[in-house]
Fold:
Amino acid sequence: MNKKMDKKSTNLLFLVVLSLTGIIYMTGCGAVSNKKEDNYALTPMVMIDGKLYYPLGRGYVDENHDFDGTIKSTVDSNEIPTENEQSNFGSEYGYRYTEKSGVIEIFMSDKWYEYSTNEADMSVTNEHPVEKQRIELKPSVFSYYSIVLMLPADWDYEIQQTDDVPISNMSINIKPKKEEGQYISIGYSKNFGVCGTGLSQEEIDLNGHPVWKGTYDNYPLWNFIVLKDENSDCVIINHAADTWSKNYEKEIDEILSTVEFNIKDKLVPDGEIVNISACTRPESIEYTYDDCIDIQNIREYFNSLDLDGNLSENPGDRNGMSWALTFKYADNHEVTLYYFDEYILNAEGQWFRVKHEQAEKFDEILSGIELFKITPSKNKVEDFERNIGEMPYTVDGDECYNIVPQDISEKYGFDIFKFDKSYAGYLMYNDKIYSLGSSFGGYGLTAFAVADLNKDGMREIYFTFSCGSGIYRSQIGYFDMATEEVKIFDYSNEDNDMSFYVDSGKLQVCNARVTPMGSTLLKIVNLKKVGEIVLDDGEIKFNAR
Structure:
């Protein structure tokens, strides 16, 4: 980081924000009253000009959003509409007439859906109604993907998803109710990959998407279906390929024909970004980011935000300082976002509210300083024990953990290990081991930050630690990845623990209340500021307040 004083939705695949919704309804109904007495809802329907219209299938994107009318009222999902411009699935949806006889289109979720006056178009008959479930998957935490499918009522489903942001793995797992064990999963899996041994693949079309259908060792039914190219994390896996699935081929094909894959536009679109410029208004402080990790961090931050577009006011009417961030791509096009008081204006001119806890990280992201917390795992512990040679001083039952989050380790190329009883802490970088501070009588390593404060193009790893041989105290140090040296500041904070936070683009140090939670985990509450780490005459220094 260098310092100086423009609505569309694309059909692709899976996962959006909010919660999970499953709405059960019957396709094809021979009801004579306007209400069913059981727990199943009727097929979605709407009355326009005195006629009932029923859904024909998948939606499509059209930039023309002109309406001929609006659905003005709604009834319960197990009732039949009786008034003009009334539905049993909601109101305030726009509709338009088409050139097709008996067909209208309704605009929902940024797509146009065809509705017909002819129930037979739904491929069911009144004599043999088919109960189906409409499954709409909306993740519990933010992601740009979502999925909708129709599932026969005699099939079960369950939802699985990770709680990371954005979501890395998520699926709808389906199987017939009378079958036990394995299932078919329809979902998103980051970095999905396959083994080529015994594999044959066929390129097919799935609801308008080019996909690979893969089969291993001549199984009677396919093993996986994966979207091609940049959407290859979107996958359908047949875990029942060698059991019940071969007996349900027709039903499975019918289910897959209803799957809708959707992805909303990202705030920062994909593509190679060469630099990012950020400036404040009206003060006109400017920053330029051309480091690949800074660019990655800023892009990931904006594309992981949980955004709310349902605003009761126009944030643009407020006064105050705002940020303008311009992302310049390798093909010379640019995307500009505006950030103001927990609101973002995207390139299409739409405002969004940002969740408070995510907005609090904005200053940290622009500072180029990345904080991380102790996240214990057994990742690379064997490598550490092999590289350290003679085991350091430990106590009975001392267990070693890698305390660096995996994404931090992968991004910056280092790992930190800590023992859960002696609290001794060590850094592993370039297959070398370095001791980080002292731990006897204290908690050892407590807080961490990664930054390039001296602007040499290499990061430093900042840490706080506590010990107490005689007098309990905490100190601050850093490891310079350029010189591969550990340095400890002279400052000693007696009878206190310390932690980091970011404010005004600087790495701040504060007193902290530390509570051990087991397995090297610590609960840390930041308290009063004690100083900041700065670059002074080319030297990294700690300035106590």
The chain has four domains: 29-122, 135-264, 271-367, 370-544. The chain has a mean pLDDT of 82.
